[in-house]
């Protein structure tokens, strides 16, 4: 299973981080860009019949599983 973790707030350099399988995080200019990238990779996993989980931290500090990847097609 591929796991994506997207924190709510940017880091100290105003980059939004996306960790994949607990590896060093990738940096993005916006939270939306990070989520779009995660969705793109998740759609590739779906096409291969593999599992994924996108964990997104909310403004309240709680982590939730992002739902809807199967409904979103990102070019």
UniProtKB/TrEMBL annotation:
Superkingdom in the source lineage: Bacteria
Official protein name in the record: Uncharacterized protein
Lineage: Bacteria, Pseudomonadati, Pseudomonadota, Gammaproteobacteria, Lysobacterales
């Amino acid at each position: 299973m591929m796991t994506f973790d997207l924190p709510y707030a940017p880091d100290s350099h105003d980059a939004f981080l996306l960790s994949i399988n607990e590896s060093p995080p990738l940096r993005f200019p916006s939270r939306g860009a990070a989520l779009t990238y995660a969705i793109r990779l998740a759609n590739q996993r779906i096409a291969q019949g593999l599992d994924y989980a996108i964990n997104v931290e909310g403004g309240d500090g709680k982590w939730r599983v992002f739902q809807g990847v199967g409904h979103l097609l990102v070019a």
